[in-house]
Amino acid sequence: MTTSYVIDAVRTPRGRGKAGKGALSGLHPQELLAQVLKTLQGRQGFDAREVDDVMAGCVSQIGEQGANLARNAVLAAGWPNEVPGVSLNRFCASGMQAVHFGAMAVGSGAMDLVIAGGVESMSRVPMGSDGGGQDGNNTHLRERVFQVPQGISADLIATLEGFSREELDALALRSQRNAARAIEEGRFAKSLFPVKDPHTGAMVLARDEFPRPDTTAEGLAALKPAFTALGETAAWPKGQTLDQIALAAYPRAKTIQHLHTAGNSSGIVDGAAGVLLASERYVREKGLKPRARIRAMTTLGTEPVLMLTAPAPASQKVLRLAGMKASDIDLWEINEAFAGVVLQTTRALGIDPDRVNVNGGSIALGHPLGATGAMLLGTALDELERTGKQTALITLCVSGGQGIATVLERL
User: In the UniProt entry, which residues are flagged as the active site (predicted)?
Assistant: First the structure.
């Protein structure tokens, strides 16, 4: 493998993911990704015919997000027919997995120029629209392992780790404050581009729509747990509730404390992002100045009931591949799927919390499933450049018991 270079990274603002209410809800997801492609081309000036592939993560690949969204986004962008596209799904890590596949392609010499990222319109194609749940409704698989919803897993993690509601809410409040500061200081400006109506050219959304800068500790404390009723009353195989199924796998918890709320869990939003990756050969021939390189990347599987604890071992694995220690990393982006996930990962790795999600995370900004991983990479790169720091580690938990991690090195 040779070096995989990051030439650029861009993203849309995140729009509220409520049908007919968020600013981006009127745009087809293909159009969101198409604007990512055109923005990268406009910034870097490459010939679209030189793009070997467009790789896009998307979780709910049905309806408007079905039919190979990536290829249709290429066509919607008006790019040449020669440019291919492929869509992929590794749940919440889909956008980052696309980056990994792109980095593998250019690093191996098989390709020279790849755009990798993702898109999710959670207002137009809500979570669960494909009807497959987490296990594809396979009754035989459920006899071996029953995968409870992520919210139940998050509450189980908080219970086993002994996290209090106050600790979870404190992380959520920090996310909101960090995001508000980042927006006020223009820290997202380098990667963020305004979304326009593809028909009229009118401005649709120029800044993140989801953050709530007026959030208070008192307001967070007043929110009701989001998964209590689901865990305690929903009857599943053999008449067991979801809580009972989770506790059968982890009896030491004795009972599940339902502590995650809408305020300390990730927000439902629409958005798209892309990362322009190039090979050593392409960089040399075109005289490009890369912004960063992918120093190491990995994925990892863990136990599928607890499910959301993989960021820590995935980070340890990618650090070994990079020849580094956790203390060597300047900035961490740990996806805020749930507050308990970030707290558990930070504790397990012994990370200084001041290095984690310094510009807020998915609790404040929202989590457009298929796009988030690519968005986090761009956010990390911008912050490395702003502060003059060198390395960032980006990691996400994944439904079904998986994790993904990337070490990014600024050049």
Answer: 92, 367, 397
